[in-house]
Amino acid sequence: MCNICVFAGTTEGRELVEFLAGQPVQATVCVATEYGETLLPEAENITILAGCIPVEDIIRMLQRMRFDLVIDATHPYATSITESICTACRETETEYLRLLRQSSEQTEDVVCVENAAAAAAFLESTRGNILLTTGSKELAAYSGIPDFTQRVYARVLPMDASLEACRAAGLKAAHIIAMQGPFSEEMDLATLRFADAAWMVTKDGGEAGGFPAKASAARKAGAGLVVIGRPPQREGLPFAAVLDVLRKRFGCTVRPQVRIVGIGPGSREAMTREVSETIEAADCLIGAKRMLEAVARPGQHTCDAIAPQDIADFIRTHWEYRRFAVVMSGDTGFFSGTKKLLPLLEGCDTAVLPGLSSLSYLCARLRTSYEDVRVVSLHGRQHNILPEVRATSRLFALVGGERGINDLCRTLTEGDLGHVSVYVGQRLGYPDERIVRGTAAELTDGVYAPLSVALIENPHPDAVVTPGLPDDAFLRSAEGMPVVPMTKSEVRAVCLSKLRLTERSVCWDIGAGTGSVSVEMALQAKQGLVCAVERREDAAALLGQNRNRFALDNLQVVCGSAPEACVGLPAPTHAFIGGSAGNMHEIVALLLAKNPHVRIVATAVSLESVAELTDCLPAFPFAETEVVSLQAARDRKAGSYHLMSGQNPIYIFTMQGGGETA
């Protein structure tokens, strides 16, 4: 097993040790203080040495341990320890690698100085309180500032040596802020306000040292920023390149930590504390641009990606980041990309953190519960909303697009549902949040945010789920046109029962006539599709009128003869044949070619049609067949009596495809 020595004491040093824990290497980790030791992980392959080590002791340790590699991850301002490590490595001919911390870009409003003495000299001519965030070792350099004990506040590590240095410099206890980082922008801002600071003094610690957060907090607090520049650094490698060395030379493996987090409606206030802390600690955030802008901390690495495969590819090719947070709008289990993303992250350390859904947020704003609410998404997907609203008292819809709400309300109005109540939630959780109430008809021409949600309430839902609408519910002829044939209610109910439709069935109705079967198919297969094929133009026109009468978006009228008109249609899961014009064998062959497992129900009245269907039974590889003869009779009034009038007997053929899928 390879033997590595790490001189840590910084954020990236700690992260490097966390990476090495459990890897196929033996690591000796040196930190300057016992407090630094408490921040490091415990592992069988990790040995931790705490305390300041003179150069002579470092030399003896390297001679004794014969390390394959020494990694210097000390602070960029700790030049003396870096010099000692370099000297020891030269003396013992041990390979040395410097882990470099990336510098931060400086803006024009920053005062850059060479060292602590120069910072103190500049501050002597200023007014207002000063917050020092450069540690306790150089406090004495600032003691000459006028009113030092009144103006200066020092944020230092909570260690005895740091507190003693503050007392030795003459700082009052109320001006000593003993805290352990890392610090968020919010914490930096709160500290500046606590000190009522006009100036903040810091070092260029880069992103790992929290410099972007300090700079942003100073701007928000209206405080000037004094930055002590870095000493010249030795040649080295950034964190990602160091990991690459460990991976290629020593067989270390990279297992990224990926947290998929729901950020709620979008504002930080609506996030759970766990989600907020995970985002703050992430090396890289991934998600849609608008969400990244809402939650990323200053200087945080981000990736604008939405597609699950793009996200997974980025994670697997950017192993320089160890902790990823994939941000999802709302809740991770509520119409998010989480379901598709998780299978693509095999081998990663994954966890899912839920968030506040837009459904629960809107209902809370409306002071109503949501256990009885049906939920659908119209955002980036097709959904036949009309049957849902007709059958449901309360329905919640996620809506997207510039005209999404307008299109929804217009669809409801044109579907004879303009009277239903609609509550539109826009930019929920943001300062400009807006909730609009009205009927679908009233809201059709409004102006709405692109990302909106809607709660629809129907006071009189139609919850009938059984087939067999009365015959007079359908138009059978238009003015000046002959009566179009129609499958009667009793037969229709049996045929639909034999079909065993599902909510998402794709159905063909061949020889559709008035479309009575097509309409009932579409009402049952709410999220599916019905293709009604009719060769007579007058009948196809009437069929279209019946479709509009029931406002069925999922019913498509095809004017033409089967099977030719059916070739381009989507593969059916179910088919009803009410008329074949002598092409029964060809129609059945096409159905099975499209889907070998299609379920077919066909009716026959004439003996010729019965013969055609009977010939089909042995000609095709059906897994199941059934033939039922049905004769219905209806009452009619004859004077003071009621008599039953028999209708033509009808044969119902059920054929379940059982062939191999092509």
In brief, what are we looking at here?
Helix content is 33%, strand content 24%. It has 662 residues and is an alpha/beta fold. Keywords: Cobalamin biosynthesis, Methyltransferase, Oxidoreductase, S-adenosyl-L-methionine, Transferase.
Name a few traits of the molecule.
single chain, 662 residues, alpha/beta, seven-stranded mixed sheet, six-stranded parallel sheet, 23 helices, 30 strands
- Give the strand order of the largest sheet, numbering strands 1, 2, ... along the chain: 24-23-22-25-26-30-27
What is the global morphology? Answer: elongated
Number of helices: 23
Structural class: alpha/beta
- pLDDT under 50 segments (min length 5)? none
- What's the number of extended β-strand segments? 30
Average pLDDT metric: 89
Give Rg in angstroms: 37 Å
GO biological process, one term: cobalamin biosynthetic process
GO molecular function, one term: protein methyltransferase activity
Organism: Brotocaccenecus cirricatena
EC number: 1.3.1.54
Describe the protein in words.
With 662 residues, the protein is an alpha/beta fold. It contains 23 helices and 30 strands. The strands form 6 sheets. It has a 7-stranded mixed sheet, sandwiched between helices. The longest helix is centred in the first third of the chain and has 14 residues, at 79-92. It is elongated and about 120 Å long.
